[in-house]
Amino acid sequence: MELSLIPQLKHTKSNNFFLLAGPCAIEGEEMAMRIAEKVVTITDELKIPYVFKGSFKKANRSRLDSFTGIGDEKALKILRKVSETFQIPTVTDIHTEQDAGMAAAYVDVLQIPAFLARQTDLVVAAAKTGKTVNIKKGQFMSPESMKHAVTKVTETGNEQAIITDRGTMFGYQDMVVDFRGVPTMKHYAPVVLDVTHSLQQPNQSSGVTGGRPALIGTMAKAGIAAGVDGLFIETHFDPANAKSDGANMLDLSLLEKLLTDLVTLRKVVNTF
């Protein structure tokens, strides 16, 4: 996997971690552009390779009345506009084989949600688009089992695979990250830590997922110390009123300080 093969990815020679960051879901053009502009400014200053993240639709919802999106094509066009405006790559998650071809026409990286990491037809369909495929480790899967998920991508002839760890289920309503899995999974593909989803508290009786955003900094620093190649952070300028996953998103106003600290920590880690 070569980061430099992701179109428009900047700062690939900086020896920094790379970042996938943005809102959980695309709620509209103004919010997406506002978040992208802020993150681009920060990552350019810190020389962090940056991919804008935004879901064009949300298929995995606890409740029937949960927000699922503003319309597939409308959201995908916004992702394309973000890419063209700021000259950065974009990533979105897909849920069906049909999604793969549709989303590939608009974005640079296709993401396989954790609950779908073992869906062979979906992973293969994503790989066959030729796009980089980011596979989230299922909450129910071991680090060792991700070798087979990556193989499904590479055996199509696509070498552009990434693994993202988003924690493992710990009881019914909590997640735990086992950092012992980082060096294991790095044998298969670059490893990203999904900082914000790792702090989710799913399966709440209200049907709305909870979270522990106060620990985002702790989790991110632990990931860098453990040697992850990249970080995944969902961020919003108004998490309390975000339409999806607001309970575990990072307030956008806190991102610059966090990334500055993480770049400093990465420099120390690189000396070992």
From TrEMBL:
Q: Which SUPFAM superfamilies match?
A: Aldolase
The record's GO molecular-function terms, alphabetically, read: 3-deoxy-8-phosphooctulonate synthase activity
User: What highest taxon heads this organism's lineage?
Assistant: Bacteria
Q: Which UniProt keywords apply?
A: Cytoplasm, Transferase
Instruction: Name the chemical reaction catalysed here.
Output: D-arabinose 5-phosphate + phosphoenolpyruvate + H2O = 3-deoxy-alpha-D-manno-2-octulosonate-8-phosphate + phosphate
Q: What is its EC number?
A: 2.5.1.55
The cross-references to InterPro entries, in alphabetical order and at most eight, read: Aldolase_TIM, DAHP1/KDSA, KDO8P_synthase
Q: Name one Pfam family in it.
A: DAHP_synth_1
Q: Which family does it belong to?
A: Belongs to the KdsA family.
NCBIfam families of this UniProt entry?
KDO8P_synth (TIGR01362), PRK05198.1 (NF003543)
Name the chain's protein: 3-deoxy-8-phosphooctulonate synthase
Q: Which organism does this record belong to? A: Croceitalea rosinachiae
